[in-house]
Amino acid sequence: MINGILNIYKEKGYTSHDVVARLRGIVGQRKIGHTGTLDPEAEGVLPVCLGRATKVCDMLTDRDKTYRTVLLLGKRTDTQDATGEVLSVSDTGALTPEKTTACVKEFIGEYDQVPPMYSALKVGGKKLYELAREGKTVERKSRKVMIHDIQIISVSLPRVEMEVSCSKGTYIRTLCHDIGEKLGVGGCMERLLRTKAGSFALTESLKLDEVEKAAREGKLDEILIPLDRVFGHLDQITIKDAYKALGYNGNPLELRQIEKIPAGCGKNVRYRVYDREEHFIGIYRCDGRKFCLEKMFFDPDLMS
Fold it and tell me: What share of the chain is helix, strand, coil (3-state, %, to 5)?
């Protein structure tokens, strides 16, 4: 089985599920999962996990994201993006770049965002976009999202191009809609490019054709990212050789069973744990007296 992560550049026209389906055909295995839905018209970074790396799908979904988007002011649609049915058109002649920029900047920080009807969130066991396609609108509870930063790239009214860094669960098209509402003219998202998802950047992403070419040439290992890279922000510790079997089985580890106790090892600190051969075992949390397993990633096939 192939284990690792591919940083895919999702192109327009593909759903996230389409990407997974095509990769299954390319690599010849079913155990593949994506790490966060991108709309078919959106482009950009989509980390995809293969084999044992599917264990980190939920962790990658939880990471902050960065997007480049174009807000079109003066137009409201039912999907909050330019692909939807136009609900209203407003004159934007009274807007100025200064007033528009100031309004956009007001959204930096935490704010309550109501998920759009055209989304994959479930209400009563049914996805919202399925209800929307049936002509139904249901009440959605607002939820807090964090907009870490918004950088204005250009203002050419009625369009605003901007880069948004935000928390998981943020809908950029809803942000565009909300900015338009606050300006009193309405707005929708015209274009979306995800440039970063956690530690995965657009500059390192690969299109599906490039992955297929690498697989055909037997070079898949050269583009596959080891799953422990996801935890590169955590310090590494190594189990003493005599106790490595404890790690392989997910047992707690005492401080004396570790090669070198890291400085600042205290309560609730997480670490990447390896054996002396640099096999990634898992993520352990230190309680100040011992290390306890949080998530296991050890592959016993490596020892055969």
Answer: 30, 35, 35
Q: Which helix (H) or strand (E) holds 230?
A: none
Residues 6+ apart with CB under 8 A from 94: none
**SS3 state at 242:** helix
Mean pLDDT of 187-216: 95
Q: What is the pTM of this model?
A: 0.86
Q: Which residues are catalytic?
A: 39
Q: 106 with 73: CB under 8 angstroms?
A: no
Side chain identity, residue 195: T
Are 45 and 205 in contact by the 8 Å Cβ rule? The answer is yes
Which amino acid does the sequence have at 137? T
DSSP H helix total and E strand total for the chain: 8, 18
Do residues 235 and 283 lie in contact, with contact meaning Cβ atoms separated by under 8 Å? no
**Residue 48, Cα to own-chain centre: how many angstroms?**
10
Residues 145/170, Cβ–Cβ less than 8 Å: yes
| Cβ atoms of 257 and 246 closer than 8 Å | yes
Q: What are residue 238's DSSP bridge partners?
A: 274
User: Is the Cα dihedral 211, 172, 118, 93 positive or negative?
Assistant: negative
**Whole-angstrom distance, CA of residue 189 vs CA of residue 81:** 4
Compute CA 139 distance to the chain's CA centroid, rounded to the nearest angstrom.
26
What digits encode the pLDDT tens for the residues 62-76? 788 999 999 999 999
Q: Residue 36's closest CA among 28, 46, 24? A: 46
Strand partners, 44: 10, 194
Which ranges constitute the DSSP H helices of 41-111? 57-61, 97-105
